[in-house]
Design brief:
364 residues; alpha+beta; 4-stranded antiparallel beta sheet; 15 strands; 17% strand
Length: 364
């Protein structure tokens, strides 16, 4: 039987893992080649993963919200040459899902399935295992954590609740005279608790009339990147006002004819970027960052343009080598990247390698 393995794709040089957001097909369903099979997310961008072949989806190796290393088998498809006789007939009946056992993945891929000695059927997701390793939780402790997930599985909230109570000394920490092995990394050394993942704040710690909202993934990434930026760029705020009345009047006069002639809208953003490019060429030091005690002056002018998303979050697509474009080219780049950002069609490389970021809050 010709079975094709679908691997977690590599979405960029620095991307080593991705989170499965949503499966668009269920086991037993027919999938076309290049049809979107699932949606994934990295710390850079959300993407669709197309099927590499046509056929019947026989196995889904990981559930949604699982972090999976690149190159790992995430699904199996029976190729069309063997599956064409099994395509669902247009009878309206739902194909019966294919039954499977939970997959076992090698330790070298850092996604390890752990079975407890007291419960042979207990499965720990890669995310739970990563948190356990980072927090120095032994296998014996992991087995004692009550699971609220499907079939009693330990969820992210279960293990973070355990960590919170253990660190606060509330007596949740359990010891066992049996297996006290600590989950280790591929070098055989325990993960340091100093590098632990941030612990979620328990809502009961707040008093008064409050509303608790869980941050979505995009807001979490924005928060992480804002903190990280403090370590790479000195933060100084300087205000300099400019009268751009003539610029606004010129755009109002030209925008209709510009759109007819060039087939794209003329907004203020490409005009600001054009001015910014001239500034960078005149003062190259503003297109720089710090690395230790060294100043890294960027020769490429890659302009990031902060773009608001429909859900209120923010993303920064990048115009690579922006100085190579004229005004028309910049307008087309701005409109194309903004459209792709708002419709979740950005590629990982579209938000990488920015050297200078422009944000325009004039609309507010």
């Amino acid at each position: 039987m010709a079975i094709v393995d679908l691997l977690m794709p590599k979405m960029g040089e620095s991307i080593m893992e991705a989170t499965i957001l949503k499966w668009n097909k269920a086991p037993g369903e027919y999938v076309q080649q290049d049809e979107s099979l699932l949606d994934i997310a990295t710390d850079k961008v959300d993407s669709e993963v197309p099927s590499t072949t046509a056929g019947i989806l026989t196995e889904i190796m990981f559930p949604e919200n699982t972090v999976v290393p690149v190159g790992t088998v995430i699904a199996r498809i029976e190729s069309e040459s063997h599956a064409e006789n099994r395509k669902p007939e247009p009878s309206g009946e739902t194909p019966k899902p294919v039954q499977r056992e939970e997959p076992s993945v090698s330790h070298s891929s850092s996604v390890v399935e752990k079975r407890s000695s007291t419960d042979e059927n207990r499965f720990y997701s890669p995310l739970v295992l990563n948190i356990a390793r980072n927090e120095g939780i032994s296998l014996a402790e992991l087995e004692k954590i009550p699971g609220t997930g499907n079939e009693g599985r330990v969820t992210k909230k279960d293990i973070l609740f355990f960590v919170t109570n253990r660190n606060s000394g509330n007596g949740f920490h359990s010891h066992s005279s049996g297996d006290d092995r600590v989950l280790k990394n591929e070098t055989g050394k325990p993960f340091s608790s100093e590098k632990s993942l941030p612990t979620e704040v328990v809502a009961s710690n707040f008093s008064g009339n409050v509303e608790i909202q869980e941050m979505d993934r995009m807001r979490k990434l924005i928060a992480e990147h804002m903190v990280r930026s403090k370590q790479t760029s000195p933060h100084v705020t300087s205000f300099s006002e400019a009268d751009v009345t003539n610029l606004v009047l010129w755009r109002e006069k030209e925008k209709t004819e510009f759109e007819k002639r060039e087939g794209t809208k003329l907004t203020l953003t490409p005009l600001f970027i054009e001015a910014l490019i001239k500034c960078i060429k005149k003062y190259p030091l503003i297109n720089s960052s710090l690395q230790g005690e060294k100043i890294i002056i960027r020769k490429d002018i890659n302009i990031g343009m902060a773009t608001a998303m429909p859900n209120g979050s923010l993303i920064v697509p990048v115009i690579k080598n922006a100085d190579n474009y004229n005004r028309v080219g910049l307008a087309r780049q701005v409109n194309s990247l903004a459209f792709n950002a708002r419709n979740n069609k950005l590629k990982p490389e579209d938000i990488q390698e920015g050297t200078f970021t422009l944000t325009n809050v004039g609309v507010f």
